[in-house]
Amino acid sequence: MHQDILLHMGDPRELEKLYRGNRPTFKTAFNALYPQLKGDPLAEGWYQRLNYSQEDSLWGTPSDRLFVVSASLLAALLARLPDLLSLDKEFFYVRNGGFIVFPLLIAYFAWKNKISRKTGAWLAGLTLAAILFINALPQTKPGDTLVLSCIHLPLWLWSLLGFTFGGGKLKTGVNWLGFLRYNGELAVMTALLLIAGGLTTAITIGLFELIGLHIQQFYFENVVVCGLAAVPIVGTFLTQAQPTLVNKVSPVIANLFSPVALVMLVIYLAAMLFSGKNPYQDREFLLLFNVLLIGVMALIFFSVAEGTPTSKNRTQLLILFLLSLVTLLVNGIALSAVLFRIAEWGITPNRAAVLGANVLMLSHLVVIGVRLMGAVSGKSSLSLVGSTMSLFLPIYSLWTAIVTFLFPLFFGFQ
């Protein structure tokens, strides 16, 4: 190996082949030869690559750890407020569930990105105003606008998180694609943490059961609730402290599920024709239809966000293009069903919200489909699809704000 390294020192490609063929032996041999290779730029680069250790950064800096521990404890405290203050749990969690985690994540990225005090004050003011607004909505007879506000508020907070993640500067643009990648990585890390937490919970309860102690209620009310509140914060910290931990898993999952989703959608649409179910008459079916639409659109977003202009081959681009076409068909059916119901029974807060969302998603899908067609034909790159997504995400944020804060006023708190 020593002779091979010396022989190919002027050829980076051959050195890479040697390294990939037997990494441990290559590292040992290269480190032994390094004293006589000092001064060679290629040798210096290989030495840093082979001997760089990430152990020191595995758990971030001391200030990172302090922030995450403090934020996790605060999230756990917020999650336990209904029990500590004897509050109505349904009222608290339905209206304030998003405030348990999102403000803390916003604060984390505001701190990491060193956003200006003025921007930080605006974010804090908007969050406080949202807390006051959602808790001030009439509670004697919950109506559709209250439900819509409670559903869309976390989505609006999510958009504030994206703004903060991207640096909190509108003039230079927000890194929405990077934010989508972060969400994909966070989803993977959260799933791993939940699996580990579930196994730990089962083992702990089982062990106490063996000695005759029934701790289920205490454990779920204290440990599980607090743990669930802390998971997004811990998961975010791990994805930022160790970006290589899951960043190769998310693209694999996206590429794996894209063809599965395409086949499933085609079969589902065919089965719908024979099932007798249709979104024109069945309100619950229309709701599920829109949930399916949002899920598939999210898969398209993450698939594009996890890729680079050169990371996806023609087959993968073709699958994404076909998936966008089928999703466009699903969106068209959902939109026509909403218009049909409005024409038949009039406008309501729910129908207005679904109509606006469907029109926005339809517009977005058309542009994405055109961009993907260009990428498949080779006339444009995947980066244009990403820029299209970046253009529409702030519009989604605006729509969630309208539904959350203005719909109750427009419809008289119905």
User: Number of helical segments?
Assistant: 17
The helix/strand order is HHHHHHHHHHHHHHHHH
Low-confidence stretches: none
Secondary-structure class: mainly alpha
The overall pLDDT average reads 84
* Outline type: globular
Total number of domains: 3
- How many DSSP E strands? 0
- Main pleated-sheet profile: none
The value of Rg in angstroms is: 26 Å
Beta-strand percentage? Answer: under 5%
Approximately how much helix is present in the residues? over 70%
Beginning-to-end CA distance, first to last residue = 77 Å
Organism: Larkinella bovis
Transmembrane segments: 92-109, 121-138, 145-166, 186-211, 218-240, 252-273, 285-305, 317-340, 352-373, 393-413
Keywords: Membrane, Transmembrane, Transmembrane helix
Protein name: DUF4153 domain-containing protein
Task: Write up this protein.
This protein is mainly α. The protein has 3 domains: 2-52, no CATH class; 62-241, no CATH class; 250-410, no CATH class. The protein is built from 17 helices and no strands. Helix 13 packs antiparallel against helix 14 (283-305) and helix 15 (314-345) runs antiparallel to helix 16 (349-377).
